[in-house]
Design goal:
348 residues, mainly beta, 1 helix, 3% helix, globular
Length: 348
């Protein structure tokens, strides 16, 4: 069930070259579909996140978070009452998880063992992306309508800071070596650089030639950020200077990015039904090695760094309705009960 677009058909030759050049030969094997995990139910979905040590995948779905055992590839539980949930961040050392509930401007604090909600914390308007920072045992909700980030103490559950961002935040990552949080400001074409101690915005970096970046991933060893941009580009950015050092073309409708440090592979998942996979040849060079065909609308993604598998949310849709000239874009209707998670890997 492996399928590669014509533009990426040369990936076999590229992969062979990389095998000769890299000690991690398995990392450049082409990705292919391994499993579909049915979930069902109605409503949309957003971020996926993983706790690799616990072998758990957390999938936001309408008003709940679905929990999947990644060893058995089956649903093992749900976190209920998370209206308009966007994301879930696990804090294993605290035994807690945190969800960003967009419709009610709150974050749920959840017991990871029982999956029961312990309490809810009020955040800024429209909490979307969510990030756990182990260095300080803090949780950041990035509030789309509030143009801010709420910082929650993971132990007490109290909001300790509200950071004005002056833009619409999307994905974020943390670099513990320099204790900085990097966050895409989608409508400003910028990266906000936040100090983890002071909770202050230190810098704002323009991302030209990229536009409207959503997804973000990080290579901690080489200090590189990977940004998925609306104008069909994945950027590689120096996380120390903010300089764009390279770029590669990707599909349309990008949402998420991931980075596998062992294979030095950067992933960009797109709504057009593709995942662009690029190899970090050097800290200044990114090369596309595969364009993986997935499913239309499968644009949210996460990666398990232990198994190197990627997981994407997906569903089946009715035929697209006729689009009127100069009218608003009309999306096809999702077929009830068809929601699922697609599992891709590069094992033989």
């Amino acid at each position: 069930m492996k399928s590669i677009t014509p533009a990426a058909s040369v990936s076999g030759l590229v992969c062979a070259m990389l095998v000769m050049a890299s000690p991690v030969s398995r990392a450049v094997e082409p990705y292919h579909l391994l499993k579909e995990v049915p979930i069902g139910g109605d409503g949309g979905w957003d971020y996926l996140s993983i706790d690799p040590m616990a072998h758990r995948l957390y999938v936001s779905h309408a008003t709940k978070v679905v929990v999947i055992d990644t060893e058995k590839n089956k649903v093992v539980g749900e976190v209920e009452d998370t209206p308009g949930v966007h994301g879930f961040a696990a804090a294993p050392e605290l035994g807690r998880g945190f969800s960003s509930n967009g419709r009610e401007a709150k974050a749920s604090i959840v017991d990871l063992q029982t999956l029961k909600t312990l309490e809810k914390v009020t955040t800024g308007e429209g909490p979307d992306a969510i990030l756990y920072v182990p260095t300080h045992q803090e949780v950041y909700t990035f509030n789309g309508r509030g143009h801010s980030a709420s910082v929650i103490d993971g132990k007490s559950g109290k909001v300790t800071a509200t950071i004005p961002l002056e833009g619409k935040p999307e994905f974020a990552v943390h670099d513990p070596d320099v204790d900085r949080i990097y966050n895409n400001l989608e409508d400003k074409n910028e990266i906000a650089v936040i100090d983890g101690k002071t909770h202050k915005v230190l810098e704002r970096w323009p991302i030209a030639p990229g536009e409207s970046a959503s997804g973000m991933a990080i290579d901690l060893k080489n200090h590189r950020l990977f940004l998925g941009c609306e104008n069909n580009l994945m950027l590689m950015v120096d996380s120390r200077s903010g300089k764009v050092v390279d770029k590669v073309p990707i599909g349309q409708g990008v949402d998420a990015n991931s980075f596998d440090p062992e294979g030095k592979l950067a992933f960009a998942s797109c709504g057009d039904g593709t995942v662009t996979i690029a190899h970090e040849e050097s800290p200044d060079k990114l090369v596309v090695v595969q364009t993986l065909k997935t499913a239309r609308g499968a644009k949210t993604m996460t990666l398990d760094p232990q198994t190197h598998r990627i997981y994407l949310g997906s569903a089946d849709f009715e035929p697209a309705p006729e689009q009127k000239k100069d009218g608003p874009r009309v999306r096809p209707k999702m077929i009830a009960g068809s929601f699922k998670v697609l599992v891709y890997g590069n094992e033989k």
